[in-house]
Amino acid sequence: MKVLALTGGVGGAKLCLGMAHCLDPTEVQFVVNTGDDFDHLGFHISPDIDTLTYTLADRSNTELGWGRRDESWQFIESFEELGGKTWFRLGDRDLALHVRRRELLSDGQTLTEATAHVAKAWGVDFPILPMSDDPIRTIVHTPDGPLKFQHYFVRDRCEPSVTGFAFDGIEAATLNPKIDFDGLDAIVICPSNPFVSVDPVLDVPRMRERMKASGAPIIAISPIVHGQAIKGPTAKMMRELSIPATTASVAAHYQDLVDTFVIDELDADAANDVQALGMKAHVTQTVMKSLDDRIDLAKFVLGLLA
Amino acid sequence: MKVLALTGGVGGAKLCLGMAHCLDPTEVQFVVNTGDDFDHLGFHISPDIDTLTYTLADRSNTELGWGRRDESWQFIESFEELGGKTWFRLGDRDLALHVRRRELLSDGQTLTEATAHVAKAWGVDFPILPMSDDPIRTIVHTPDGPLKFQHYFVRDRCEPSVTGFAFDGIEAATLNPKIDFDGLDAIVICPSNPFVSVDPVLDVPRMRERMKASGAPIIAISPIVHGQAIKGPTAKMMRELSIPATTASVAAHYQDLVDTFVIDELDADAANDVQALGMKAHVTQTVMKSLDDRIDLAKFVLGLLA
Q1: pLDDT score for B306
Q2: In angstroms, rounded to a whole number, what is the distance separating the alpha carbons of residues A29 and A14?
């Protein structure tokens, strides 16, 4: 079995964890969105890579839903005392990752190499591949002007209404050469935000062609369930973009790329709409609350290949 | 009253705290050694400036004898997990100072300005002046070759025997222009290591001339008491340099610069040797265990001016 999984942050990482329980490190590559990356306080912060790494390393903070487990906040409390900006909450343990990554990057390592170094230190053997080692920065357009993604997402808590997106630097970026498209059995698009988590990955020059040229079936799992996003602003964004916040709209977003679309039981009645777009539609329980849910969804998706 | 106090780290900072209890912020300037400064993990670390700032801000870690009070170590523990070097123990709260300083320096502030910013945030109004805003790096010469100061002092725990010292960059460095020599009533050389804390300050181009030209009495307090250094490697260094580890040797080190030398009661019999060097000798209790000890020594030193 050889699978390529495209993922953003929390939602996608849940399915990646499920796949990691079903496949060997040689059987799956995780290609991660870096459009959320940003430079903050002199650190290179890669929120989606970090979320996936923490998740696979069993170090994610499940109470908060972001960041690292067993976290403490002495740094940020003292940093605020010194007049530092605290809208992006850097935990004491999380800081270790950012300081170490900067050290590795300034030693000349690529983001891919630095990511592998951190994963290895935590015993994670699965390949975690940034979509590109070149800087790509997601910009969220709003009626009040463009916002850097983390300003929109964290600082402004997704409150501004969105009118569109741009991925600065993407035209000049090189697709991560470590991604191995040869002999893929499947490409899985995890249930991540289509606009700001998956589109940046798909829009890296040559990514779509390489995916199609691989000949592997492309399977997407809907991040929208019964008109809601499990987490994050996907549904809100769709409403603001005047797109019905439905699973069928997500399927339409992936038309001409995705062969098979997985929808939740609650959206079973959307199967016809999905098929009308020329995709196979499969229905299952997609909401991942427990580890078993993650593994069950991974098994279901991989089972579609049999 | 207008006093200029030259200081290194812990020992000098004790007397500075005592002076801060006796004088207004307009009456004293603290000129601090930056030869210990180093770049570590992408941070500019100024150990002596930080020790004095923590001391004056009542944030110093008196249990450890270095660093910040109420410190925690989540960062360094996690950093070690990632293969990071941990010989220089950065605490979670101490990190806030280093991240903030880097931010201020990269915004174009001088070390003097960044230091003032931090001090102000903690309610410290006393001028804490780096001896220079230019990089000066103390090198410790040993039989096995040169060592950067923090490698000698922290990483190697002062174990290598010393054969001499160099202050890289000092010839090209500019004396901190914020130091005000006009109308000084006294210049106080705090009980700090003469070789690696005070000499770097004295050796900044024009420092000695400006001190002498000010016409102010120069008073030094011996860091050696009864052949021992209260803290740090001063006595060990003297033995390795074949200099008797005595308070008189320290006086001789400052000959032709210092007018008045303050020695501890335990060294009262050295008064004659000090006077033989052409200095006034004064005897008092110089070991500062309590805050009262710090204030008493400051009062004694300032009293010499009456």
Answers
A1: 77
A2: 15
Percent of the residues in chain B that have a pLDDT greater than 70, as a whole number = 100
Quick check: A306 pLDDT over 80? no
- Chain B partners within 8 Å of A76 (Cβ): 96
Q: Whole-model pTM?
A: 0.94
Q: Which of residues 1-60 of A touch B (CB under 8 A)?
A: 41-42
ipTM: 0.94
Contact with chain B for residue A187, Cβ under 8 A: no
**Residues whose CB falls within 8 Å of the CB of residue B104, separated by 6 or more in sequence, listed in order:** B113, B114, B117
Domains of chain A listed by start with CATH number: 3-38+125-140+171-303 (3.40.50.10680)
pLDDT tens sequence across B71-85: 999 999 999 999 999
Cβ pair A76:B82 closer than 8 A: no
Q: What are phi and psi of B79, to 5 degrees?
A: -65, -40
Q: What residues of A are in contact with residue B96 (Cβ under 8 Å)?
A: 75-79, 81-82, 84
Q: Does A82 touch chain B (CB under 8 A)?
A: yes
Chain-chain contact of A75 with B83 (C-beta, under 8 angstroms): no
CA dist list (Å): A199 to A32, A36, A191, A204, A258: 11, 12, 12, 9, 13
For residue B291, pLDDT over 90 is answered with yes
What is the nearest CA distance from A44 to chain B, expressed in angstroms?
A: 12
B122 close contact with A: CB closer than 8 A:
yes
Give the residue on A whose Cα is nearest the Cα of B59. A78
Q: Which of B79, B91, B97 sits opposite A96 (nearest CB)?
A: B79
Burial (CB < 10 A; 0-12, 13-18, 19+), residue B231, is middle
| Residue A123, CB-side half-sphere exposure with 13 Å CA sphere | 4
Q: How far apart are CA A1 and CA A217, in angstroms?
A: 13
Indicate the pairing of strand A186-189 with strand A3-7. parallel
